[in-house]
Amino acid sequence: MSNASLGKTQMSDRHAKYEHLIAHAKQLPPVPTVVAHPCDKTSLTGAVEAAEAGIIVPLLVGPVQKIRSVARETGLDISKFELVDAEHSHGAASKAVELVRAGQGELLMKGSLHSDELLHEVAAKEGGLRTARRISHVFIMDVPTYADALFITDAAVNIAPDLDAKHDIVQNAIDLYLGLGLGTPRVAILSAVETVTTRIPGTIDAAALCKMADRGQITGGVLDGPLALDNAISPEAARIKGIKSEVAGRAQILVVPDLEAGNMLAKNLSFLAGADAAGIVLGARVPIILTSRADNVRTRMASCAVAVLYAHSRRSSVTVAVE
Length: 323
Description:
Number of strands: 11
Oligomer: single chain
Strand order of the largest sheet: 3-2-1-4-11-10-5-6-9-7-8
Radius of gyration: 19 Å
Order of helices and strands: HEHEHEHEHEEHEHEHHEHEEH
CATH architecture: 3-Layer(aba) Sandwich
Shape: globular
């Protein structure tokens, strides 16, 4: 199976995109993964199942007695995994980041603590995992009615990003797409309309991002924008509007104007279109697997698979300079 096949399936193959991702990750050596505070059934099960699938080697960080209690109650065997004690969720987040900095893990995985609690430690100027790149989140959506895996960014970290932040958000998503071996991505910078107007500031940002790509400030992808959602993903809508570009109607990465728009788009696809939404945070020293309590087993495994594939691609690439 080629890497390129991971991103595209027949629309009748429901959720086959995730199955391809997981299958490909299983072909690679498991990646050491620091799991912060896996203290409930869902988060601990996700880490254990990914380990049993041969995708990750987890290092479990949190209140050891609580982790063992959850394992007993859930019927999980964690005897083969290393545990590092931390008194509470905040301590687990801090310790997990410390272990990653010490080279104990190539991935960081969120357990049963709030995302903000973990990301606060990741983004800390002293002792965190910051790089010169802005941290951002990407949803890898498996939409049954869309032929390609659909990347949506940023719907979880940056609330109202300015142009500089959007530059990093776009580049992070492109780097992930390339790192997964999916080829050169078609990137749509979304707005409510497809024309540039001062009345909608996001359209100006979209035009600027496209010019940045023309000038080599953003590399690795083909950008177009502003594009409305319909003419970004529907060839017919793009045809009716008279939009001719490599991206229109066939986008693979959707860059939203702000977190609210992205969050609503991703959840709309999940709850109304039956899509799954794997999630990963980029721009830190290591990829961060950011799962939700509502995620099913397939989605959690896909999040791990995406992070593992990206981690392997990063081993042979130049890392981003640390501030």
